[in-house]
Amino acid sequence: MTSRSSRPTRGRRLIALATAACALLLSACSRQELPQDALDPQGPIARKLDNLINPVFVIAGVIFVLVEALVVIFAIRYRRRSDDDSPVQVHGNARLELAWTIIPAAILFVVAIGTLTTIAEINREPTGPGVVRVDVIGHQWWWEYKYEAEGITTANELHIPVDRPVAINLTSKDVMHNFWPPKLAGKIYAIPGRINHMTVQADKPGTYFGQCAEFCGLSHANMRLRVIAHSAADYDKWVAANRTTPKLPEGAGNAVAGASLFRQKGCASCHAVTGYAKGEVGPDLSHLHQRQVFAGALFELNDENLRKWLRDPPGEKPGSIMPNLNLNEDEITKLIAYLDTLK
Amino acid sequence: MTDIAVPESTTAAPAHEVEEPSILRRPAQPTGVVSWLTTIDHKRIGILYAATSIVFFLAGGLEALLIRVQLARPDGSILSASAYNQIFTMHGTTMIFLVVMPLSTAFFNYLVPLQIGARDVAFPRLNAFSYWTFLLGGLFMYSSFLLGGAPNGGWFGYAPNTSVTYNPGHNIDFWIFGLQILGIASTVGAVNFVTTILNLRAPGMTLFRMPIFTWMSLVANFLLLFAMPVITVALFLLMFDRNFGSHFFDPSAGGNPVLWQHLFWLFGHPEVYILVLPAMGMVSEIIPVFSRKPLFGYRVMVLSGIAIGFMGWGVWVHHMFSVGLGPVAVSAFSLSTMFIAVPTGVKIFNWLGTMQGGSLRFTTAMLFAIGFVAMFTIGGLSGVTHAVSPHDRQQTDTYYIVAHFHYVLFGGSLFGIMGGFYYWWPKVFGRMLSERIGKWHFWTWLIGFNLAFGPMHLLGLQGMPRRIYVYPKHMGWDLWNMVSTIGAFTIAVSTLLFVFNIAWSRKRGQAVGRDPWDGRALEWSISSPPPEYNFVEIPEVHSEDDWWHRKYTEDADGRLVRLKDPDAAAVEMYGPSAADPDAHHDVHMPSPSYFPLVSSIGLPIIAYGMVYGRDAGHNYVIAALGGVILLTGLFAWAMEPSTEPGDHGDHAGHDAEPVLVGAGGPAALEAGSAGSAPVASANGGDDDGERIPRDLLRGGDAAEEEK
């Protein structure tokens, strides 16, 4: 507000107001895309929460209208008309006061029943052969996913099959994080030294957005996530692709040079590539190009963004644990060529 | 305290010899800077509290504007991530610890003694110590901006993000020690007000005749008294983790970061009621006066306040519904959280009941009070939706929560406090604030507030988490963020109107007499501004709303009938001199003192010593130096008689010579000596209230009369 424009504040405020009014009109006409809308459940778990809260919103709305209407009606009806008004001195009314103690309590009692049953339901862990099990680990500032049974480790994008419950064991490597894909489930903390459980399930294939919801330090805002739901067949394909051991590039060329740079420059001490590097600090890169995004789901995965990232990671994501390795453009080109082989 | 008050001690003479330090000769000037630095008058301390809090409010508001400018549009780039995290942490910490709490304390200070018919608080010097400690704690915390970075872990400071591993700078250290200092101020203040309210009430003022504001103050101060130790313990544990290598919250060494959350919210939730109960008290004073009706269901209002105070200790886990505490804990706390809405709802309906059938006069104070009812209701209702804990997993840590607590703390606390400002301003300064500016202030505040925080409900439910310094374009949050920012700037302009109103009122505000609003409680029976001693005679209280009933009665139909105008009623209460504002009353008050200020200066020095001692290879010499200053100040304070012997005027039999017992004259005696001697002599040992003074007086007519 201070920089940017030299126009007078008042003018700018008017423009802002006008913009807001136009935007309001526009949004009324075309429904906006809300990728993290918590009121748009896309799976049975999120729907359970939604079904519970909707009637509560209605009740709250009714009470809201009642109270605000009484405020307005009383304000108009009982406004002072003369300084000699001498209203009846009512000191209270035990019956009324009892009524507005008991009636709200009764309403809340009904809400409480629904709440308690739903608490029991959502804390029930899914069982059976259809359950997919994933360990989700929060890091500053990215998510790690381990599919123990399938032997897959990946990052930022959680891939799941539709219509099957995904049982998540949630923990953190450093500070507290909070895993939240709003359209699929409510959020749960990832706490170091503790394992929390949550269940996620999607009805339809698609990409569902989410992000870390607990303040976790400098780049909390940049710790985003995606859940990608596949049809059964696509999911099997994804699993198969992610279980292979990536082939080391051979012969001459940038990719080969990149692979050796990967070790020389220290990449390998933080990142894992099955059969080639065993780092444990950063995301597993074995099948990097199975993903659409990287660096805390912050950037689309393409050569251009990778280049920007490799030039200066903390410049792209404040506080990034991955340091600026002072790579020259040639080295970056080679590294990208190697990374592009990790499919 | 009482152990010093050995009744059979000798006279004050030896004390006189011990206490007189040559450097800090007892100040005597009634005006000037020194008089403010050394004042122990609860009214001046109240004004200091309010003025300081307003300055911090402007600082916190500026931080809010920075936040809103950054978030006005996607990919905001005005603040860096690091700056944003400091700003939002300081915004929250400031508004809670340096604005709403001390604003409430300002009102406790100014009003509680006036409402209960006392001449000061129970421990006047301790009261000054609270203020200076609060001020220095706030300045200490803000000095971090100049010393390498402000606190950046959020006002909640969740472990282990606050550990040295993840936060190696001094940011968190400033937060820990700043809050510790502020905690001392609050705890000491709470002791003072609880003691004052329980012991210094005028004769006849039984608990159920206390004005409702005093009642809510009592509840809030009890909450403070019990809540502050919890955060103190938590902060000490954190300090040990950071400074001395302990591992209370370090999971890698067997510590438990969830423990921090329990401790923090076990303090933090009662804290919410500490912030809102005083404002509820103010609203409960204002609405009856401008409805010309008594508070509907006074006793139920008191009891619901107490109920909220008790239940407030049993709901803290609702801040932790997604921490994974298991279905049993979550169920229990869902229930308790839902049912705390019941006493809160009772209050809302009782305010409506007060308005119903009344004769409503829409002064600015009344508008703010009604605004409180209307806005707090919204915060209360969204609060109930959080209690539906399964869905709280969607709400928590989003802007929906930010919306909720701003409706409670801004729409609630600050609207109530603003109402309090407009209502009591003429009492404090003898001049009105401009009603015309006031109404502009109210309406722009109301509109700005709803524009700023209403949209946050939607943003939160649309998936916008809290505490993010940036959000991308495609999230669909652009519009409401822009609206919210416009709202924030509306509030800012509106707040400047208030500041302007204060300046305007100093010269041009209409001068008023004792009772400009036709008030109900005792503060309106004395002149505006009140004399230093408050009451020339301690009034005797016969009913709830005593002052009102001296002016009005009811006819057979319960309608209002005027008996006397305020001046006549005051003459009846206090004698003929009450009508003459220039009348000189030689009421004898405790003397001002340097030592509260000197003692509290030790505290930030200890804090700086602790912050920087860690870097200096655990060399805490400076902290020790601060400790020496603190202890020296306290010792000199203890050795100083509460009332300078030379100050004793000749009170012509009106004032039983209050020879203080014990050398140090514990602060309790101060009010006892000054406030009560005339009471006792005037009322011959009427028993309700005023217990301290009787024990504390030695000799004199008063004590003898009692036997």
**How would you describe the oligomerization state of the chains in this entry?**
heterodimer
Largest sheet of chain A: 5 strands, mixed
List the uncertain runs of chain A.
1-8
Name the shape of chain B in a single word. Answer: globular
Distance between the termini of chain B: 24 Å
Largest sheet of chain B: 2 strands, antiparallel
Write out the strand line-up for the largest beta sheet of chain A, numbering strands in chain order.
3-2-1-5-8
- Give the % helix of chain A: 25-40%
**Largest interface chains and counts:** A-B, 101 and 106 residues
Low-confidence stretches of chain B: 1-20, 648-707
- Share of β-strand residues of chain B: under 5%
**Binned strand content of chain A:** 15-25%
What would you report as the Rg of chain A, rounded to the nearest angstrom? 27 Å
The helix/strand class of chain A is alpha+beta
Task: Estimate the global geometry of chain A from the Cα principal axes.
Answer: elongated
Please describe the structure with a list of short key phrases separated by commas or semicolons.
heterodimer; A: 343 residues; alpha+beta; 5-stranded mixed β-sheet; 14 strands; disordered N terminus; B: 707 residues; mainly alpha; two-stranded antiparallel sheet; 1% strand; globular
In short:
The complex is a heterodimer of chains A (343) and B (707). With 343 residues, chain A is of the alpha+beta class.
Q: Can you describe what's shown?
A:
The complex is a heterodimer of chains A (343) and B (707). Chain A is an alpha+beta fold and 343 residues long. Helices cover 39% and strands 18% of the residues of chain A. Chain A has nine helices and 14 strands. In chain A, strands 3-2-1-5-8 form a five-stranded mixed β-sheet. Chain A has a three-stranded mixed β-sheet with strand order 4-10-9. In chain A, α2 packs antiparallel against α3, α5 crosses α9 and α7 crosses α9. Chain B is mainly α. Helix content of chain B is 62%, strand content 1%. Chain B starts with 12 loop residues before the first helix and ends with a helix. The N terminus and C terminus of chain B are likely disordered. At the A-B interface, α1, α2, α3 and β9 of A face α4, α8, α9, α10 and α11 of B.
